[in-house]
Amino acid sequence: MYQGPGLNTFVTTTLPDLAREICALCATLFKLMIPIIIAVKVLEELGAIPLLSRLLEPLMTLVGLPPSMGLVWTANLLSNLYAGMLVFYQLAPQQPLSVAQVTVLCGMMLVAHSLPVEVRIAQKAGLRLLVALGIRLGGALLFGILLHQLYRWGGWLQQPVQLTWTPPPLDPGWTGWIQGQLQGLALIVLIISTLISLLRLLRWLRIERLMIRLLRPLMRLLGIGPQATSLTIVGITLGLSFGGGLLIREAQSGQIGRRDLFAALCLLSLCHSLIEDTLLVLWLGADLSGVLWGRLLFGLTCVALLTRGLDRTSPAFQQRYLFRPRSDNRGVSAHA
To answer: How confident is the chain (336 residues) per 10-residue block, as mean pLDDT?
Structure first.
């Protein structure tokens, strides 16, 4: 019978190594997230969100939405899905919407949200800022236009949406905001600890290799190599903050090539957190055809096209316009 490592080795070596890895990854994420979260809150208090929403109002007509929905998308872009949902519930009773319109809005919210934090994570993982931002905003707008045209062409989901739930009132002051952010950061620590522990267990049991073999045909089609497969799966199911955080670590170590990194980050940017985020927007009345199956098909198709476009560019072009110098990423690791 196989005898695993002794209890003493597990306590003195494995657990400290695991704790250091968790602390290093959490420190990297928190150094990115906390200053941005505070800055967004300050902008919100200064009234910047309504001003930005007015700039986005013309875009709403392209996707068949009322101009007022620009405020929902703005709150979602600068903060998170929960902020967008709260604004939606405030406006929805005064603004009749169809199921198709809500599905389009939610599809755009799922592709592009929490941009100050998540775009910064993608940047630290290796993409240039404008590239990461363009993929999220451009992808969200293109996805919204395609969904709108599809539903209008087929005459689908044109019935009025029925709100099934309204959120409980939240403390709008700084105290309630601080409590909510601390709870969110604590949840991130818990999830990251679980993810890293699970990844180590999967590697120890060699299940990770089996997962890579099963998904290799799809990942190869998308241009994602075996080294990035498991981390991409994490991001797709749980979110870009977690999958992107793990990709930062791997990018710093040099274990993932530039092409794999580009493909993985593009996929995570367009199609992430398929479980939690999808369930959230279903409460708004969105239809599963758009927010899950449509988003998944859109993300896979875009990544397959983007990676093939990447193969047609020169290394000099990629270095200048797409990727950050690797020294930038190593600097983050050394400082974490």
So the answer is: 52 76 77 75 76 82 90 85 78 86 96 89 87 95 97 95 66 75 78 75 72 72 73 70 69 76 88 81 91 94 91 90 68 32
3-state class of 204 per DSSP?
helix
- Compute the 3-state secondary structure of the chain and give helix, strand, coil in percent, each to the nearest 5: 80, 0, 20
- Evaluate whether 100 touches 151 at the Cβ level (below 8 Å): yes
Q: Assign residue 65 a region (left: φ > 0; alpha: ψ between -120 and 50; beta: otherwise).
A: beta
Q: What was the pLDDT predicted at 112?
A: 94
Q: Which residues of 300-335 are buried (b: 16+ CB within 10 A; e: fewer)?
A: bebbbebbeebeeeeeeeeeeebbbeeeebeebeee
- Reduced to 3 states (helix: H, G, I; strand: E, B; else coil), residue 323 is strand
| C-alpha distance from residue 278 to each of 73, 129, 184, 282 (Å) | 16, 26, 19, 6
The DSSP string of 104-172 is HHHHHHHHS-SHHHHHHHHHHHTB-HHHHHHHHHHHHHHHHHHHHHHHHHHT-S-SBP-----PPP---
Tokens for 324, please give them: 């950050």
Tell me what pLDDT residue 169 has. Answer: 59
Q: What tokens does 117 get?
A: 């934090």
Is residue 224 within 8 Å of 267, Cβ to Cβ? yes
- At residue 264, φ and ψ (nearest 5 deg) are -65, -45
Q: Report the pLDDT value the prediction gives residue 143, as an integer from 0 to 100.
A: 97
